[in-house]
Amino acid sequence: xxxxxxxxxxxxxxxxxxxxxxxxxxxxxxxxxxxxxxxxxxxxxxxxxxxxxxxxxxxxxxxxxxxxxxxxxxxxxxxxxxxxxxxxxxxxxxxxxxxxxxxxxxxxxxxxxxxxxxxxxxxxxxxxxxxxxxxxxxxxxxxxxxxxxxxxxxxxxxxxxxxxxxxxxxxxxxxxxxxxxxxxxxxxxxxxxxxxxxxxxxxxxxxxxxxxxxxxxxxxxxxxxxxxxxxxxxxxxxxxxxxxxxxxxxxxxxxxxxxxxxxxxxxxxxxxxxxxxxxxxxxxxxxxxxxxxxxxxxxxxxxxxxxxxxxxxxxxxxxxxxxxxxxxxxxxxxxxxxxxxxxxxxxxxxxxxxxxxxxxxxxxxxxxxxxxxxxxxxxxxxxxxxxxxxxxxxxxxxxxxxxxxxxxxxxxxxxxxxxxxxxxxxxxxxxxxxxxxxxxxxx
Length: 443
What we know:
This protein is an alpha+beta fold. It has helices at 15-20, 123-128, 130-133, 137-159, 198-208, 246-266, 268-273, 289-300, 312-326, 377-386, 395-402, 415-422; strands at residues 27-39, 43-50, 53-60, 76-85, 93-104, 163-164, 170-171, 183-186, 189-193, 210-218, 231-240, 286-288, 330-334, 347-348, 351-355, 357-362, 365-372, 408-414. The model has no long low-confidence stretch (mean pLDDT 93).
């Protein structure tokens, strides 16, 4: 009988181990996929693709125990050789090959050259062959940076006493309402795909005080734009015992500072590869909704068409204004009109026509919606009644407040949109591993 006692010690080294391990001049063993082969005659350069990046290997006729002609790109191999300094190689070193073992061979050549620096393919082509095109080093770097954003979000909130939760994605009633709901039959009952974890994360504030979740949400919007998806990753948090909605904005600002520092220190390679300059999050301005509209109208001569909402062009102009006037890439827009916010948004006691809520714009694109919630049961019922809503339809949600809740609020951040703006991409599908939109259900 065999017993497992923990991670098995590996004889092969990862790229990070090689970089940090002091192996220069020594014989090492590693593995990876053959990214590309550059045959120069008696010498050939074989680039291995590993999780952390590329490793340059050198094949010299007579020095290695295999034939170069037997090796194909995308073969999985295990190699052994002597590590030597080479400033022109990735990471400043290369592996002089002595032996190679093929672990697997591709059944067919690649339909697209993933080893090119830039794929040079259309977005539709890249998405249609996503499983393959993600092997390109630049494509891979996008989602390593996205990993860093989500990792930083989690790590920071854990440090602030938040509890990570998992909420249902098949629900009886959507939190946001409206027509953009994916409906489904659930064992003879009507159900929906969750538009947001809103109801559940509010309930869990009554349990843990501070909660967060990183999970998919679903919107049945028939938009086919560069900023919309029908399934995206929402990074949500909700916190209790707040003094005001400003506490939520302050927490998000501190989270962004933490994330940017993490990216700068641990994802510098990917940032350099994609030539990304991180934004300054030291000070994030906040402006009231009506004032923001007035400022851009006056500076850019744009007539205010809709006094109750921000159009995409207005968001872009607000971003432009605060970049020009304050060199700020982020800006909080606060006090949105009540008629454009969900029923659970807290109205401003000084002016009930607006709410204690906000959006965070990043380079002119909304990436966050948040604010303070109504925590008083009678106040919530009164607002629902004023809107012609039926409390009986969401009794489970209302019971949270019937039995007492602290002042609280929270937000949701679109991970793909945040990544899109950070990397200066023009389409949110570029920063979505496997996009789901009105046209795409595969791969």
